[in-house]
């Protein structure tokens, strides 16, 4: 439910208090009024208003003193100073005391509405920043990246060096599930920007028009639904890091605007006419071959080279198999207390199955497999029976296909069926043959392979069949 904005009006003129209360209440705001500074401070203590309008000419305690006392209690309260027309010096003094804005008397109600719109936007941004800080509560550092392989340890050392630079753009490459997000967060939290926002946006999850609005923000009236000004993530992340995940999915128009941000360190909101300076670091990530995308003219060459000032390629899990069991045991340790289990290790056959599996979904898939296995395992050692069927059956499938084709008497061994092929190719060819056998019926093919239909669809997409 949207929070109801609470407004306190402090003025010794009854007509002003009445007119503002009537106007603001009609718009759905919760309005309190006070005719003196002493009364206002009491109301502030019990109601904690989001916004205060305060006149300077009050009995006993003047408006400037009210501002000072309220700010001493709660410096986050937004205060708008009301002053007689032309009293600029007093208005400036009020700003120094902590007022966020001022309005000259006599004022129109439309001026008040405009101020409230700006305050509402400011409160929204503050709420977003609080959410971002809560998301960063469990801070990810390089110590959280579990590995004993030389490949990943080398990447960690390189990333630590890059983290110490102030503005260097970083491009993280690697398949889905390899841990690009972890590295991005670790780089941010090892840099001088660690106390500033870390803003993540998945470029493939938003429509093109919405993506631009989220990144760059928009002015009021920029498009049909732009009823008020909105700052984009580049502005929200001021001083911090913006992590653009799946950067390879953005269109050429947005790419050009992003290039401008990188080169000029400014953003222009949709519908805006001025450039706004931003001081941020951009970390981009993709599972696409951006060099190939450049050749295909779907990704700008100048942006590609601007992003890859430092390029880090995170290898798929199958290329650093020394980490498979280390990660598996780490995940077991995470899930044990969650599911009230006491699994102390992995039996030898299950270890072999885990190591031999290709892990197309990489570390993310391994984590999901371990979660499922911990739930199913009833003993103190994780056994093969607790692992998903698609992992266990992978080694048996080539023989199963050969037997189903009536070659049971002379069925070749799996290693001869696809001689010299990689495990990746074996899986691909196995799926092709199963689909062919079942006339491209995915339901029957998944049952034949001993995997779920969703898993089969994932593998079809993974192998681009």
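Sequence proposed for the structure above (465 residues):
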């Amino acid at each position: 439910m949207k929070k109801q904005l609470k407004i306190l009006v402090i003025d010794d003129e009854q007509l002003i208090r009445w007119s503002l209360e009537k106007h603001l209440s009609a718009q759905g705001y919760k309005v309190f009024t006070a005719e003196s500074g002493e009364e206002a401070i009491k109301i502030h203590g019990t109601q904690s208003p989001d916004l205060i309008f305060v006149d300077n000419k009050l009995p006993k305690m003047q408006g400037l003193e009210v501002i000072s006392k309220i700010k001493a209690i709660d410096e986050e309260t937004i205060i708008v100073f009301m002053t007689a027309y032309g009293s600029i010096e007093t208005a400036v003094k009020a700003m120094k005391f902590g007022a966020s804005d001022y309005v000259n008397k006599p004022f129109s109600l439309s001026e008040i509405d405009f101020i409230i719109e700006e305050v509402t936007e400011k409160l929204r941004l503050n709420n977003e920043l609080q959410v971002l800080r809560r998301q960063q509560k469990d801070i990810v550092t390089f110590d959280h990246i579990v590995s004993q392989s030389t490949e990943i340890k080398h990447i960690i050392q390189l990333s630590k060096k890059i983290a110490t630079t102030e503005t260097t753009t970083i491009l993280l490459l690697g398949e889905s599930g390899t841990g690009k997000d972890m590295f991005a967060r670790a780089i941010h939290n090892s840099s001088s920007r660690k106390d500033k926002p870390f803003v993540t946006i998945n470029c493939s999850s938003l429509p093109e028009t919405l993506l631009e609005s989220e990144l760059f923000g928009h002015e009021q009236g920029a498009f049909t639904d732009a009823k008020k000004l909105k700052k984009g993530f580049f502005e929200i992340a001021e001083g911090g890091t913006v992590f653009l995940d799946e950067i390879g999915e953005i269109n050429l128009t947005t790419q050009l605007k992003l290039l401008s941000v990188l080169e000029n360190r400014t953003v222009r909101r949709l519908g805006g006419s001025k450039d706004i300076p931003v001081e941020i670091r951009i970390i981009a990530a993709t599972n696409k071959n951006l060099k190939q995308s450049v050749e295909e003219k779907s990704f700008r060459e100048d942006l590609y080279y601007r992003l890859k000032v430092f390029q880090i390629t995170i290898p798929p899990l199958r290329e650093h198999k020394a980490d498979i069991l280390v990660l598996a045991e780490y995940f077991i340790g995470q899930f044990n207390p969650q599911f009230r289990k006491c699994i102390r290790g992995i039996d030898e056959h299950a270890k072999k199955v885990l190591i031999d599996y290709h892990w197309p979904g990489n570390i993310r898939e391994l984590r999901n497999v371990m979660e499922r296995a911990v739930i199913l395992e009833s003993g103190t050692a994780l056994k093969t029976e607790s692992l998903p069927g698609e992992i266990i059956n992978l080694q048996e499938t080539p023989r199963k296909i050969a037997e189903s084709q009536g070659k049971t008497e002379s069925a070749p061994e799996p290693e001869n069926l696809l001689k010299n092929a990689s495990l990746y190719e074996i899986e691909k060819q196995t799926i092709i043959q199963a689909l062919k056998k079942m006339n491209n019926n995915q339901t029957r093919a998944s049952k034949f392979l001993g995997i779920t239909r969703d898993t089969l669809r994932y593998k079809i997409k993974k192998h681009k069949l």
